[in-house]
Request: fold
Amino acid sequence: MVEFVLERVISATPERVFAVALDPGLHLRSMERYGETMVEAPAGGVFTEGSTVTWRARHFGIPFRLRSIVYDVDPPRGFRDRQISGPFASFWHEHVFDEHPQGTLMRDTIRFHSPFGPIGRVVDRVILGAYMRRLIEERNDQLAIEAEGRGRTLPA
Reply:
């Protein structure tokens, strides 16, 4: 299993960062260069407790579908999501938003592992660990831009 933690200070309130993080459009905008689309959108257009979403993407030239569920929603402190079906044997993501003197300390903890036993473990260590870290960093770059009001704006 691969696990990594990313932390970033964002110049916005936890409430604002939390709201931006729950916008499914944020994911689409942050993954635009990978051609990700939403096959199944969450009811109401925003993630809430129990929301499901299905993404379609192409990574390494291979088309994927990943269905996930959002749970443990605790405004504005955080939420979790995990894969229900898709390319991973397991994928789990915890989003935490803590007050910080400069705004919000955002912490993402990611755990995943690929199928295919020993071969999957090698792929995770050699390729997917760094690749997934980069994808989440790109998502977080876009989240920071939007939460800080340097891009698309959402209600406060």
The chain has a mean pLDDT of 93. The longest helix spans residues 117-147.
